[in-house]
Write a structure and sequence with these properties.
- The protein has 2 domains: 163 residues, no CATH class; 55 residues, no CATH class.
- It contains 2 helices and 12 strands.
- The chain is elongated.
Amino acid sequence: MNDAESKGYELDVSYNPTRFWTMRVTGSQQSAIDSNMSPAAQAYVDSRMPIWTTVVDPTNGQLWWNETTGGTQANSYYVGNVLSPLKLAIATAGKRKPQTREYQFNAFTNVRLAGFTDNRWLKNMAVGGAVRWADKSAIGYYGAAPDRMASSVRSTKPGRFMTRRWAHADLTASYDLRILSNKVRAHVQLNIRNVGENTHLQRIAVNPTAATGTTASSIRRSIS
């Protein structure tokens, strides 16, 4: 029905001050949009609408458009599954896609203690960390006025609900060892993500209502 177009820039820089110390910085700027909205979908709907709304069920003489079959009315199905997505696609054509963050930045570092000590226990250890930052992203759209035949919102507006920018820090610690009489090498690593952040609910999507929106959330944990 439409094309998806993405443009942007990426930066990836690695620097190793010594063979025991590695550093890496990455960053990106992206813009993903829906473009070239095809007129064929709307043209097909327009051509079929006179038929859908006038065909009569020969078994009862009622308009098929207003009948309820299997718990679903043709009119309601059209509004919720055809008209609403189509209106949203038209309204958001040429605008940034939701769930994409325009700017992101990450920095990583890792230090092997063998470069600083000869201790038989410490020299097998490495420590590191990371800093991650991301720009705001859209998680949903504002609801348009409710359908005149129902109290619920059946379409949306271009305005978007945005998440906050976020920044997180991670820590890592690893240890190299030999087991089974030095015949097998093993690597053990502990990763702590989102240091200092408590477990909390985080918005991941917005279901539009006439005024604002109801949100769906997921639990975000600080250690993984």
